[in-house]
Structure formats: structure tokens, C-alpha cells
Amino acid sequence: MRGHEADGLRVAIAGGSIGGLAAATALRSVGSAVEVYERTPHQMTSRGAGIVVQPSLTALLSQVGAPALPMTRCTHRQYLSPDGGSGALSAMPQRFTSWEAIYRTLVAAFPDEHCHRGVEVTGFDQEPNGGPVTVRLGDGRNAEADLLVCADGWRSAARGRLLPQVAPHYAGYIAWRGTLDESDAPADLVDFFDDSFTFSDARAGGHALCYFIPGAEARTQPGERRLNWVWYVHVDEGPELDEILTDDAGERRAGSVPQGRVAPAVAARMREAAVGELHPRFAKLIAATPEPFVQVILDLAVPRMLFGRVCLVGDAAFIVRPHTAGATAKAADDARALALAAQAWRADFDTELVRWEADRLAGGQAMSHYGLALGRRVAWA
Predict the structure, then answer these.
(1) Among residues 298, 317, 340, which one ends one of the domains?
(2) Could you give the CA distance from residue 89 to residue 86 in angstroms, rounded to a whole number?
(3) 2,6-dihydroxypyridine 3-monooxygenase substrate binding domain: from which residue to which, for each copy (predicted)?
């Protein structure tokens, strides 16, 4: 991996989560001088959601010289019906990780002194015809960059400024999620779900799924892992959705209610519903999970990703359905392609950026359409 060059492309990145760190590590690997600005004042912590490992992610980590990503594995899938019958098995080896494991792996691959936590990008101005971008920061300073990468997530402030008419919209269903430490799980559940990616249809439509992910401190040995589950549930927009998204302190959340903040009555109704909707093993797993959380399923697709020397990446540009298992892979692809364009910094960089946008728009649109098709097949929208 090349270190950053004194005369290399100067890059400012708004957002220090997975999308921002993916771009930061990829661009630094080709010699760019990268500074990351993240409004959260400390490293992010989450017992978070499980993620299916895709080749795009491992290719990025290899390119940037990151430490080994903690992963769990399975050899097959099993499909269950809600009546409790045993399901069909199919051989399908897969690898799994967690949001936290990916984040910490990327943090380890990027110099901490170039990650400015507690400093938010509040605005920007750019000169025409490939001139530098002046990045305004929340601490009152300005930073100058040749490229501003906006990786500030699904509620992107940069997208709101650049494309005010484009906003996420509700897909008509939610994902109940949870993780359970293997050491706290009933032994029969560990045996039942081990070495498999397990699915259960729900009686009212949708489905649930489960697989093992790394546990505390990214441990992957049997006995130290976590069971990760997801249950997709149709919820009409309106009072019912509002109630689910109102946390234990009475605050109506926007896109999710995190672990430990779901209102107890809402969680209790969800657990009760699981008994009638899902295979008994899933209902038992959900009942044993102390702190479930909930995520609203959203759709977003931008018509543009490039605005002179400012670009949108990751969830700031496309929110794809989780059925694709592709959001992290898409962020990795955005980052690797941007690093490829950056290698033309002293040649025809702006032309390469236009090519980057065309490639990544096509990739985002394809994954978005794939997610919509999967949503129609496995859910309701």
C-alpha cells in the first residue's frame, strides 16, 4: 500500500462511519492525502447488525492492507415453515460478520490523526472548472480539498443541499432485529441454528432469518459468537408505525430505534406476535433476546452522484433493501472505483470522475432494482 504523497490529491471526507472509512482507506492506498471529519466525538460502538460478507468488501480490505476481518461461517441454508415442520437443506457456504467488526477493521487501517472526531462538515463552496473545494467545519475552521466525498449516511446533509428534491421514502415494512450472545442462548437453539443460514416464512407474509456473527471483541470461536436474527414485518405508515418508532423515553425516532431503547410494551407485542407468525425456534430465539431493535426499510436512489469536485457515496446516494446483503459491498465498490479515478489526479481527473459517476450510478441503480424485486418476492413492496 502506498503512503500518502505530499503532492497527492487532497481529499476531505464528510462522515467517518463505514462508507467514509472505506473511501478514506481506498483513496489513501493510492497516495491521496485524506482527512476525515466525523461529527460523533468518539469511535462508534454497536453490538449492531449482522452482515453477509461479499467479495467487494474483502477486496477493499485487501487493497488497503487492513487487518483480517473477523468472520463466522456456515456450510448450508435451511428453510422452515411457520407450522414447526423441519425445513429443506441446501449446501451454500457463506461468511458473516458484523457492522462493528467491519468498522473496527477499517478504523485500524486508517491513521487516527487524520480522523477528526467531533468535527462536522457544515457546508462547502467550490471554485468552477476543477478548482478546490472550501469545506466549512463545525469548529469554525475551513479546510481546502481537491475533492469532497460526502459519506454522511442516509440523512445526508450534503445530499439535502445538492439534491433537495430527493429524499428517502418508506417501503412499507420494517425489520425487527436482535443479537443474542451464544453463551446466553438455550443450548437447543445453538445446536439448531449452528452452521446454517436459516430462514422461516411468516404466516402473514415476509420472513425471518438467522445466522451466527462475531461476538464480544470480535470473537468467532464456538461459545463466543452471537446469534443474529432479522424479522421483516409489514406495518402501514401512520399510528402503528409511529408507536413502534416511539422509544422508551417517548421520542419518535426517524429511521430506527436502537438496542435498549425500544418501548417495553412494543417489544412485548412483537414477541407475542412472533409466536403466532414464525417457526417455534425463531419465536423462542426472539423471546430470549433481551434488547431487540427496529429498522425502517427505506428506498433512495439519486439521479446524480457528482457535482464538480463534490461527490456522494454509500447510503448518501443509494439506500438498498437489506435483502440484497449489498449495502456494505456497494460502499466498498464506490470507494475502490473512486480510488481508481484518483490515480488520474495529475492527468485527466475530472474526466475520470465523470466515468466514476456513470459506473457507480449504474451499480447503485442495479442493486436498488434488485432489492425492489426481492422485496416484492419476500415481503410486500
Answers:
(1) 298
(2) 9
(3) 170-299
Residues 138 and 84 in one domain: no
Is residue 195 within 8 Å of 92, Cβ to Cβ? no
Burial degree of 44 (CB within 10 A; 0-12, 13-18, 19+): middle
Q: In the chain, where does DSSP find H-type helix?
A: 18-29, 55-63, 99-108, 157-162, 187-193, 239-244, 264-277, 280-288, 327-342, 349-378
The Cα–Cα gap between 147 and 296 comes to 32
- Residue 3 is predicted with a pLDDT of 44
pLDDT band at 377 (very low <50, low <70, confident <90, very high): confident
**Mean pLDDT along residues 101-130:** 95
Distances 49 to 88, 127, 169, 173, 293 between C-alpha atoms, Å: 26, 41, 22, 18, 10
**CA angle, 181 as apex, 178 and 186 as ends, to 5°?**
100
Confidence tier at 380 by pLDDT (50, 70, 90): low
List the CATH number of the domain containing 94.
3.30.9.60
Pick 48 or 244 by higher pLDDT.
244
User: CB atoms < 10 A from the CB of 58, how many?
Assistant: 17
The pTM for the full model equals 0.95
Q: Are residues 287 and 221 in the same domain?
A: yes
pLDDT band at 2 (very low <50, low <70, confident <90, very high): very low
Mean pLDDT of 194-201: 96
Q: Tell me how many helices (H) and strands (E) the chain has.
A: 10, 19
Span 255-281, average pLDDT: 97
First to last CA, the chain: 44
Last residue of a domain, one of 254, 278, 298: 298
**DSSP symbol at 70:** P
Alpha carbon dihedral 208, 188, 179, 316, in 10-degree steps, equals: -40
Is 58 part of any domain?
no
**Distance (Å, whole) CA 290 – CA 257:** 14
57 in a structural domain = no
What pLDDT, on the 0 to 100 scale, is given for residue 88? Answer: 78
Distances (CA, A) of 248 to 49, 245, 253: 21, 10, 11
